[in-house]
Amino acid sequence: xxxxxxxxxxxxxxxxxxxxxxxxxxxxxxxxxxxxxxxxxxxxxxxxxxxxxxxxxxxxxxxxxxxxxxxxxxxxxxxxxxxxxxxxxxxxxxxxxxxxxxxxxxxxxxxxxxxxxxxxxxxxxxxxxxxxxxxxxxxxxxxxxxxxxxxxxxxxxxxxxxxxxxxxxxxxxxxxxxxxxxxxxxxxxxxxxxxxxxxxxxxxxxxxxxxxxxxxxxxxxxxxxxxxxxxxxxxxxxxxxxxxxxxxxxxxxxxxxxxxxxxxxxxxxxxxxxxxxxxxxxxxxxxxxxxxxxxxxxxxxxxxxxxxxxxxxxxxxxxxxxxxxxxxxxxxxxxxxxxxxxxxxxxxxxxxxxxxxxxxxxxxxxxxxxxxxxxxxxxxxxxxxxxxxxxxxxxxxxxxxxxxxxxxxxxxxxxxx
Length: 417
Ligand SMILES: *Cc1c(COP(=O)(O)O)cnc(C)c1O
Fold this sequence. Notes:
By secondary structure, the chain is of the alpha/beta class. The protein folds into 2 domains: 28-278, Alanine racemase (TIM Barrel), CATH 3.20.20.10; 281-407, Lyase, Ornithine Decarboxylase, Chain A, domain 1 (Beta Barrel). Helices cover 29% and strands 22% of the residues. It has helices at 9-18, 28-41, 60-68, 78-86, 103-111, 123-130, 165-177, 198-217, 243-258, 274-277, 309-313, 403-407, and strands spanning 23-27, 49-53, 72-75, 94-97, 115-118, 135-139, 182-186, 220-225, 267-270, 281-292, 296-300, 319-321, 331-336, 345-352, 360-363, 384-388, 394-398. Strands 1, 10, 11, 12, 13, 14, 15, 16 and 17 form a 9-stranded mixed beta sheet that branches. An 8-stranded parallel barrel has the order 2-3-4-5-6-7-8-9, surrounded by 5 helices. Helix 2 (28-41) runs parallel beside helix 9 (243-258) and helix 5 crosses helix 6 (123-130). The radius of gyration is 23 Å and the shape is globular.
């Protein structure tokens, strides 16, 4: 599908007068429309809820927009739990799906009434210490290979997450004996799937498991959490997932497996991150350097600290040169950042229109796992995050880091040197 920026060159130029590049910008209208479509896709399930994976875009303004659209949050750490709580998410609208979890984080999750999703059977010991909640979810890992696997996540058999089939039964029995009243099942088997089949395939596995576990343990299973993994097409040759088709596929599996087992009251939860935000965020950057050696390089003022996915996964992110949307892509460039790392390239051998210094580049699909994965290597600072509101105005929803932020953790050390 053709990739069109949600801002024009004129808009970008006027934004840059106030907020210098590089920055991330999010499209409120796109976020809201997509969230509504997801809700519509699962409207057949009365208890459906999307728990937005905070780690994808941990910004309070984004969380508030999603809250207004009826979403909860899915958290993986203390900071994310705290952010959700501060944004007004309340029991039972916070899910805590973490792994290798410190006991203090379980304690805090319990305190704020988050639904705790246990990654491992040994974590039951931690729950005994912080208090057994009424509702507990367990994360399942079926092992082996999964038919729809991608490069970001290993096959289930090689992934560190979740419990085996024997363990999850054992965990349910132990938790039942400890007084847990309601159970959930969670699983995350493939990341960034661009296929309408992922959720339906996963839900068949989890629905069958739910029927078996109910028979084997006698517990009440209240919800099934399909987690994240519905992806977006980063390359223009792919078609986006049709969430309505996906929702209908899960509906069919539900009617085939759960309803005949008398389990038609089960709520379906999702924990999407990328699908909710990726297409609705751009990283906006300026061309500041041009270099001709063995290849043609365009240096921009953003680098991998602003968007790590290309460096980390070799991920493709589409690039639009604003104002040159209709010019022929007759130049081949590597588009690079300034890190002292040769993998700091937003694009390699990319066909683009001729780029002039000062041109504004939009790097697409940066709304999830973009700013969030930022770091400070080479003393680089994290950019601002802006919101393009529905009325066309711009709101700064996180300021850019300053050099004082960078040195803040050294405050007490200057005296020592
Ligand atoms: C990362 C993550 C998500 C979100 O994944 P997306 O691919 O962004 O949809 C959901 N749940 C858990 C437990 C995760 O770790």
